[in-house]
Structure formats: C-alpha cells, structure tokens
Amino acid sequence: MDGGKGSGGRHAYIGSFTSAGGAGITTAAVHPGTGALTPLGSTDAVADPSYLALGPDGTVLYAVAELPDDGLAAAFSLRDPAAPAPLGTPRPVGGGAPTHLCLAHGQLFTANYASGSVSSLALNALDGTVEGLRGVLRHRGAGPDPERQEGPHAHAVHPAPAGRWLLTVDLGTDTVRVLDAGHSVGAGGSGGAVGSGSAGDCVGAGEAVGAADSVGVGDTVGPGGSEGAGDSASGAPRVHHETVLPPGSGPRHLAFHPDGRHVYCVNELASTVTLLTWDSAAGRLAVGPSRATVPGAGGAGGASAGGTVEDGAGRFAGGGGGAGAEGAGGLAGGADAGGAEGAGVAGVAGGGGVANYPSEAVVSADGRFLWVANRGHDSIAVFSLGADRVPSLTGAVSCGGHWPRDLALDPVTGRLYAANERSGDVTWFDVDPADGTPRRAGSISVPAASCVVFADGHPARR
C-alpha cells in the first residue's frame, strides 16, 4: 500500500485488472459535499481483483482474483479504512475466472465464469480470513450462441434479501438458479438428488448428477456425469429451482428492487433487462417482460438505427465515443481486460449500429429508477419504474468514458459512479431527483477500473 494516511472521512474502493495496467485495489476519499473521489493509495497484493465486497460488519474487504485457470479469493483488513491490508492467505476457489462474489450465511461465495461454477469458502468467525474451499456447485448446460454459450458461464452470485437463498446468474445457459445456501451451513447435510428433472443435484457418494453437480472439496465429476470420490457432507449450496430466460439472452447480473419482490436481470448478449418476480417463501422466480437497454433498439434488444445518447452538453448519435470503440463487428481483442469473456462475438446493435454488451444494473433507493451500464454504446440507460415495477426506458446518458463494466450507487448520497474499464476512469454523476437522469460531475483516472464499493455504505458504518 502506498500514499494514503489516516482513517477519517468516507472511503471508496475500486477494483481493477492488474494484467491490463491497473493498480489492483485503489482507495479513494469521498468528498462529503460533492462526492468527488481523491485517490489515496493502492495495493496489488492480489492479481486482477475485478470484484470486491464488504464483510458483514464492514471491517473486512473481500476480492476475487480473476485468474483464468485457478481463481482466488482474498481478504483485506479495513482496520485503517484508508489502507486495506492483506488479511491471511488468498485461497483457491476451485474454478477459473471468478467474476463476482458475495457473503451469506457466514461464508463467501464466488461465481466462476470460465468453469461455470459457484464456490463456497469458509470464513474465520473471529477475524474474517478466508479459510478455504468448502464445496463447488458445477453448472451444466449451454445456449444458442456457439461462441459465448458453448457451456455454462456463471457470472454472478447474489444473496436474496432476508432469506436462505442465493441467486446465481449463468450467461452460458440463459438461466438464473436459486440456490439453498442454508444447506451449506455447518456440516452441509447429506447428499442426494433434489428431484427428478431438477436444475441441479447435490450429490452424495456414487450418485448420478443432473444439470449441475454440487460436490465437496476434492470431489470430481467424471464423463457422463457420475461422481467420483463423493462427499455426502458437501459444503456447496444446492440448486433449489431454475428459471429459464429467452434463449440467447446471456444473463449477467441482478439488482433487487427495494421492495424485495422484484429483480432486474441484465442480459449481456441480448442488450435487454428482464423483470423477474421473486417469491421468497417458495424460493422461485417468475419471468416478466424484457426491455432494450439501448435507445432505438427493438423491444427484445433487436437492432435498429437512430438512437441518441445525451452527454450533458448536447446530444450525439449512436453512442460508443470512447477511445477504440467497437463497431457492429464485435469486440476488439474479444474480451474484458481480465480475459473472462469470449472473443470476436458481435453484440446486439442498438442505436447507431454499435455492438453493445450491458454489464450492470442499479436501482435507486426509493425504487423509482433503474440504471443499466451499456458497454460499446458507452452509456447509462435510464428507466422509470412504475407501480407494476416494469422498466420503461426514458433515455441514456454518456458513461463519461469507454466500456462501463460496473455501476455503483453511493448509499449515503445517492450519486451514481461508473467504472469505465477501457478508458481507465471512474466517473461520478449527480442524479436528477425528478426524472432520474444522471449528470456528469467529475472523474478520476483509474486504469482498467472494474468495480466500485463504498465502505461506509455498510449499515455497520453509517
């Protein structure tokens, strides 16, 4: 760690890809009045910390190391919030290219894109260190896109509000799986099939597997789906239910509405956002309507021309606009900086014919607005949310850079922050309370920026 001194004030933590020139985890002070970020220092103690999450009391910061073959999970002490310090030893997650993580039921869960799996890791109850792998849930299936959906690609794992469930989003299989995280608490329970035709099975010794395998540490799944050295006390979560989205959607991330009953799923390949209705008692999702995330695109994300993006100073056609923006022919270089995503695949063309790959969704604290980051179109789509919670696209503004990989809402001030990966900056926006339109307020340089987390946004630190 270099640069930052002292622990007073508010802080944000910015993940970035060290393999693309990023500093790792950058700490920034948050100005109390303007929301402006001032970098204080950085640590590259782990490679490619592309996604970050706070521990349950806000005193520990967790990161994935998005390494293509053998990803890691690491912990950092926030004893001095201005200077995160490595806490314990980074631990293998048992999968490749972990892109997302969350904490639930006293454990750490990661979504592993390259291997199409979800891992659970034990945490030390006293100091929060990552103790080791408990189990791996291996997704199965494929989608219609031969390049991006040749197999499962778990992209995110989200805890459902106030319950036992986790929701895991798989871009490769066009599914959102509801996982029973409570199963993995303690000894984990005995293995056994969830049910005939289920989306996945938590298998014990010698049992056949279904669409996904939940296996203990050291377990293997052989050809044809039979398990090797089984562990009936697997620490992996079980698949409880599977929700299937339209073929080729490519679901990436989720955002819950504050009412806890509605969820918005960002679909990377279709350039849409889908409304899902959540039944917490049953642990099930119902699929609602989808809306395009790019102005001028069809209702299901189809291509059309003529969309516009407002940049705060005027309007310009098409979007894109950042250095090296791609046309409709696909990604230049074919991947995010961390290398998780596939090569040379054309995304859905929206306004201006720009290939687009939405990345993240954020819902306002009052539940009136939804924002979605568009990579390629390089915009932030603005949706109004009515009483029925169905999103209505009202416009889009420039993200302030190129390739917005993440959006974050400051839970204290309500300002919006975009981590623009390929232009290497974090841009922040004031939000118009009347119509939800973000207005660019400033930016800082953060090479290969991938996510933003606000430490003092945690309830324990407010």
Automatic annotation (TrEMBL):
<protein>
    <submittedName>
        <fullName>Lactonase family protein</fullName>
        <ecNumber>3.1.1.-</ecNumber>
    </submittedName>
</protein>
<feature type="compositionally biased region" description="Gly residues">
    <location>
        <begin position="219"/>
        <end position="228"/>
    </location>
</feature>
<dbReference type="Pfam" id="PF10282">
    <property type="entry name" value="Lactonase"/>
</dbReference>
<dbReference type="InterPro" id="IPR050282">
    <property type="entry name" value="Cycloisomerase_2"/>
</dbReference>
<dbReference type="InterPro" id="IPR011048">
    <property type="entry name" value="Haem_d1_sf"/>
</dbReference>
<dbReference type="GO" id="GO:0016787">
    <property type="term" value="F:hydrolase activity"/>
</dbReference>
<keyword id="KW-0378">Hydrolase</keyword>
<feature type="region of interest" description="Disordered">
    <location>
        <begin position="140"/>
        <end position="161"/>
    </location>
</feature>
<feature type="region of interest" description="Disordered">
    <location>
        <begin position="216"/>
        <end position="239"/>
    </location>
</feature>
<dbReference type="InterPro" id="IPR015943">
    <property type="entry name" value="WD40/YVTN_repeat-like_dom_sf"/>
</dbReference>
<comment type="similarity">
    <text>Belongs to the cycloisomerase 2 family.</text>
</comment>
<dbReference type="InterPro" id="IPR019405">
    <property type="entry name" value="Lactonase_7-beta_prop"/>
</dbReference>
